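Why should sequence recovery work at all? Because a backbone constrains its sequence more than one might expect. Tight turns favour small or flexible residues, buried strands favour hydrophobic ones, and helices have their own preferences. The token representation captures these environments compactly. In the example below, the structure is given first.
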């Protein structure tokens, strides 16, 4: 792990830039959080950017969020005498989270939103709808993505012995889905091609596993958050900040979590059980 420096701005004004290939989204605020510039600059027009920030550049920090192409902006700011920093803590090699944790932040955000909507909603019909949608989503994600992962594992295991025909791939697909559906769902013949629309199998192998891992981990994390409150937040922030610098197990340790302990995973199922109980009470 390469240590990265933290930065605390002491300037009166701070300008954040979300930099893309052909545009940069700019937001400049004062120390009290008042927005002074808030715009999207097409074609990364740096001269226009300089005009926008001119009234504030005497005491200004430029902070850029960009994974790859920030070098030109750093050089341009240096040439213009502007103070420039990068937003991310990790370097380029460690920027992305490891695959099993790639969905953690998004799933946790969804859970926060669902809980907030439930806590504010008084209409029983709407509450039941929210609960049903979330419970079904959790169960579908956990079981469905496991089916996809098992299909992918079998596919690669058999591929070691030689090329697989499209018919054989379709057979494996139906067999693995059959383990989930049993005799409750009739799979039509055309569904043997169902695997072909899932691009993850091609561009990011075994990504489907990360959905299952993230879902189960976030359920447990969210239950831990409800139990610990504000004291949970620093550890969770460290987990998100770590990027890909550590293994999934070591990353989880930053939040005080041992993924090898059954009790941790049980928290997730306890939370799901709570949602189901909440739904039953509303019927």
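From this structural description, the recovered sequence reads:
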């Amino acid at each position: 792990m390469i240590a990265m420096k933290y930065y605390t701005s002491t300037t009166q004004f701070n300008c954040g830039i979300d930099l893309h290939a052909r545009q940069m989204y700019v937001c400049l605020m004062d120390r009290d959080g008042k927005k002074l510039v808030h715009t999207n600059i097409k074609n990364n027009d740096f001269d226009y950017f300089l005009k926008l920030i001119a009234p504030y550049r005497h005491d200004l920090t430029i902070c850029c969020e960009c994974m790859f192409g920030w070098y030109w902006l750093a050089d341009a700011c240096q040439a213009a005498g502007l103070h420039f920093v990068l937003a991310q803590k990790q370097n380029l090699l460690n920027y992305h989270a490891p695959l099993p944790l790639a969905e953690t932040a998004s799933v946790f955000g969804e859970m926060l939103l669902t809980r907030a909507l439930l806590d504010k909603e008084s209409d029983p019909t709407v509450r039941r709808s929210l609960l049903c949608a979330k419970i079904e989503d959790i169960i579908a994600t956990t079981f469905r993505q496991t089916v996809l992962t098992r299909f992918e594992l079998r596919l690669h295991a058999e591929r070691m012995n030689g090329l697989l025909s499209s018919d054989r791939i379709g057979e494996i697909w139906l067999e693995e889905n059959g383990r989930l559906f049993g005799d409750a769902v009739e799979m039509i013949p055309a569904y043997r091609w169902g695997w072909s629309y899932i691009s993850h199998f091609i561009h990011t192998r075994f990504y489907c596993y990360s959905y299952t891992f993230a879902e189960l981990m976030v359920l447990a994390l969210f239950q831990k958050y409800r139990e610990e409150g504000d004291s949970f937040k620093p550890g969770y922030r460290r987990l998100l900040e770590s990027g890909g610098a550590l293994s999934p197990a070591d990353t989880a340790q930053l939040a005080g979590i041992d993924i090898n302990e059954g009790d941790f995973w049980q928290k997730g199922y306890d939370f799901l059980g709570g949602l189901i109980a909440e739904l039953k009470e509303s019927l």
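A few observations help interpret the result. The CA atoms of residues 220 and 263 lie 9 Å apart.
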